[in-house]
Write a structure and sequence with these properties.
Elements lengths: L2 E11 L5 E11 L3 E5 L6 H8 L7 E6 L2 E2 L4 H7 E4 L11 H11 L4 H14 L15 H13 L5 E5 L7 H16 L4 E6 L2 H7 L2 E6 L2 E6 L1 H8 L2 E7 L2 H13 L4 E6 L3 E6 L2 H14 L4 E7 L3 H9 L6 H5 L11
Parallel strand pairs: 3-8, 3-9, 6-7, 7-8
Antiparallel strand pairs: 1-2, 1-4, 4-5, 9-10, 11-13, 11-14, 12-13
Helix pairs in contact: 3-4, 3-5, 4-5, 8-11
Bound molecules: adenosine-5'-diphosphate and magnesium ion.
C-alpha cells in the first residue's frame, strides 16, 4: 500500500509564538482509517489545517495525495473533503441547498450534482428534512449535513475534525456507521481527530496520540493497549498530597506491580494480577493508616495509553456535560 499522507518534522508556530505543532512525523496509507487522538489544545485542528492547506507550516514537510501542501495546494483541494470542527452549514438554506451549493463550488454539472445530493441525503438519513432550513436542524443533523457537504465532489481522502464532539452517544454511533461505510465500501481514506477514546478505539486502524503538539505514541489500538502490558488500578487517597509518597513506597514492594505513576486520581498502578492485588493494596494501606477513597481497576484502554505517556487522562466526557469547555485553550 502506498502512503497518501506523509508528514515529516512538521512544526507550526502561530503569530503569537504558540508552538501548536511541535515537530511531528507520521504517514497514512491509502485506504486507511487513521486517527489523531488528543485532548483539547493538543494541536489536532492545527495539523488538519496545515494538511488541508488552510494554514502555512512553519517548517518541516507534508504531502497529501502525492502533492506538496505548499506548492500544490490547489491540486490537494480537488481531491480532499474536509469537515472542520466548527459547522459550516448555512442555516438560511435547506439541507439540499447546502449540498447543491457545495457542488457548484466544485464546478460540478447540475445533473451530476442532483444525483450526488440525493445519494448523500440518503447516506446521512436527511431525506425527510432535505427541504427544511438547516437552522432548524438538531446538532446531530447539522453534523451529518456537514459530513455530506464534505463528500459532494467524491473526495478520495476525507479529513474530519472532531465530527462527533458534543453529540449524544446515539448520534455519535450513527456517524460512526456512516464513516465505517465510507471507508470500507467506498475505499475513502479517513483522517479523523477525536478526544473520544472509544471512538478512536472503535474506528481507527492506526492512530497517533498527540499532546501539547507532540506525538506521544503511535500504532494500532490493540498494539498501543498491549504496550501498557498490564491492568490498570486507580488508587484514590483521601489525603493524596500527604500520603502519596508513602503509599507508593508500600505498593512498590508488592509482587506483580510493573509500574506506578502519579495521576489525577492520585496513583495509578499497572500490574498483571490486578484483581488479586487490590485486596493487598487495601490491606497494606489500611494498616499504615492511609485512608483510601476508592480503588478501581480495568483492562488497559487507550486512556491508559495516554496516561502512561502523559500522566493525565483525556476527559472527553467533560465535553458532553459542559460543551463550553470545547472552546477553552490548553488544559491545565
Ligand atoms: N489562531 C491561533 N493563534 C494562536 N494560538 C492558537 C490559534 N489556534 C490555536 N491556537 C493554540 O494552539 C494550540 C493547539 O490548538 P488546536 O490545534 O486547536 O488544538 P486541538 O484541535 O487539538 O484542540 C492550543 O494551545 C491553541 O490555544
Ligand atoms: Mg480542534
Amino acid at each position: 500500500m502506498s502512503d497518501i499522507i506523509t508528514v515529516k518534522d512538521l512544526v507550526l508556530v502561530y503569530g503569537d509564538g504558540t508552538k501548536a505543532v511541535d515537530n511531528i512525523s507520521f504517514t497514512v496509507q491509502d485506504g486507511e482509517f487513521f486517527g489523531f487522538l488528543g485532548p483539547n489544545g493538543a494541536g489536532k485542528s492545527t495539523t488538519i489545517k496545515v494538511l488541508t492547506t488552510l494554514l502555512r507550516k512553519t517548517s518541516g514537510s507534508a504531502t497529501v495525495a502525492g502533492y506538496d501542501v505548499e506548492k500544490e495546494a490547489g491540486a490537494i483541494r480537488k481531491v480532499i473533503g474536509v469537515q472542520s470542527q466548527e459547522t459550516t452549514v448555512d442555516g438560511d438554506l435547506t439541507g439540499r441547498e447546502n449540498l447543491e451549493l457545495q457542488g457548484h463550488f466544485h464546478q460540478m454539472k447540475t445533473s451530476e450534482i442532483k444525483q450526488r445530493v440525493n445519494e448523500l441525503l440518503k447516506l446521512v438519513e436527511l431525506e425527510s428534512v432535505a427541504e427544511k432550513r438547516a437552522r432548524n436542524y438538531s446538532g446531530g443533523m447539522k453534523k451529518r449535513l456537514d459530513l455530506a457537504t464534505a463528500l459532494v465532489h467524491k473526495p478520495k481522502l476525507l479529513f474530519l475534525d472532531e465530527p462527533t464532539t458534543g453529540l449524544d452517544p446515539q448520534s455519535r454511533s450513527t456517524i460512526w456507521t456512516y464513516l465505517q461505510k465510507l471507508n470500507k465500501e467506498d475505499g475513502i481514506t479517513i483522517f479523523l481527530t477525536t478526544q473520544y477514546l472509544e471512538e478512536a478505539d472503535k474506528l481507527c486502524k492506526r492512530l497517533s496520540i498527540i499532546d501539547f503538539g507532540k506525538i506521544v505514541a503511535s500504532g494500532s489500538p490493540t498494539e498501543l493497549k498491549h504496550e501498557v502490558g498490564a491492568d490498570s488500578i486507580r488508587v484514590a487517597l483521601e489525603n493524596c498530597d500527604k500520603d502519596r509518597a508513602k503509599a507508593k513506597e508500600i505498593i512498590k514492594t508488592m509482587s506483580g506491580v510493573s509500574e506506578i505513576i502519579d495521576s489525577e486520581d492520585c496513583i495509578n498502578v499497572y500490574a498483571k494480577n490486578a484483581g488479586q492485588l487490590i485486596a493487598d493494596i487495601v490491606r497494606a494501606l489500611d494498616s499504615s493508616d492511609i485512608r483510601l477513597s476508592s480503588v478501581t481497576f480495568s483492562s488497559p484502554s487507550l486512556d491508559d495509553v495516554f496516561m502512561k505517556h502523559t500522566g493525565r487522562r483525556i476527559r472527553a466526557e467533560d465535553l458532553v456535560k459542559a460543551p463550553s469547555a470545547m472552546f477553552g485553550g490548553r488544559r491545565r
